[in-house]
Design a protein that fits this description.
There is one protein chain. With about 290 residues, the protein is of the alpha+beta class. It has one domain. Helix content is about 30%, strand content about 20%.
């Protein structure tokens, strides 16, 4: 039996050798697999990470940003404190952000921001002045005061509308604030998504926001802003502004001519480009 197996093995070897002998020379060369990449031998925790990575902020950028904060803190119009610099390798940068927990009013009262908004100082300054000089007086005309502003978003390192591959959002620069709702001392609430509240207050809120900020996007601008109001200070060429927030039709108004007159009186709404004090043609919303 052993002899039989040996004979069979020799025959198989001879057959294989004969087949190989009949092949061209290049066919006898068996290709080797590609070399193993170096990172494959690293422990899993040392493998090259995916996605944006946090980095150290440039000291010169931190110093310049802190210099911008001098006027904000000197004005003493908000309860705020510095938080650590935030920098990512995809361009997100907040070199000297502040956490704003409340706006101080001239009468000594405060309007809480919940949760606290993390913003760069010029944006925090603009928001505080807007609340103090426009929103608080508008609430007082209605016989009440603003007690709390619900913040939907402030600093967040992300692309616009969280769309992968989109350009960096102003939120990634701590240069934007999203407001979800406002709550008043008399128990009333205004929810941006439902446009609950007195129309005269909403009109003043929109008008003053569009005058003070470079971008204003609310319900009616696009799907991404149906449940909050977005304001930012994005710098654009020729001081170009975007103001897009449609207020609901007033009760009892059915005529298009009446509605057109109301829109003209109340100020700019959807589809208006603003450069200085002029209005221009229609343009899609600048999604943020």
């Amino acid at each position: 039996m052993f002899l039989t197996k040996a004979v069979c093995s020799l025959r198989a070897f001879a057959l294989a050798a004969g087949l190989l002998a009949g092949l061209p020379a290049h066919a006898k060369e068996i290709p080797l697999p590609p070399p193993r990449p170096p990172e494959a031998d690293l422990p899993q925790e040392q493998a090259k990470p995916k996605g944006p990575q946090q980095i150290a902020a440039d000291p010169a950028a931190i110093e310049a940003a802190r210099h911008e904060c001098e006027a904000f803190f000197k004005a003493d119009i908000a309860e705020a404190e510095f938080v650590d610099a935030i920098a990512w390798d995809n361009g997100c940068l907040a070199a000297a952000p502040v956490s704003v927990t409340a706006i101080k009013l001239a009468n000594g009262k405060r309007i809480e921001l919940k949760p606290a908004a993390v913003l760069r100082c010029p944006m925090a300054y603009a928001v505080a002045n807007w609340v103090r000089d426009a929103l608080a007086p508008a609430a007082k005309k209605l016989g009440s005061e603003i007690e709390r502003i619900d913040v939907a978003a402030s600093y967040a390192c992300r692309p616009r509308n969280n769309v992968l591959g989109a350009i960096l959002s102003e939120h990634g620069k701590a240069n934007a604030l999203d407001i979800r709702s406002l709550h008043f001392t008399n128990g009333a609430s205004f929810v941006i998504e439902k446009a609950q509240g007195r129309r005269e207050f909403l009109t003043e809120m929109r008008k003053s926001a569009c005058a003070r900020f470079m971008t204003v996007l609310g319900p009616g601008s696009d799907r991404a802003h149906e449940n909050h109001l977005h304001v930012d200070l994005q710098a654009r060429r020729n001081d170009y502004k975007i103001c897009q927030w449609i207020l609901p039709r007033p009760e009892g108004v059915t005529s298009p001519h009446e509605m057109a007159a109301i829109v003209e009186i109340e100020g700019r709404g959807k589809g208006k480009e603003v450069r200085g004090t002029e209005t221009h043609g229609k343009k899609p919303a600048n999604k943020l």
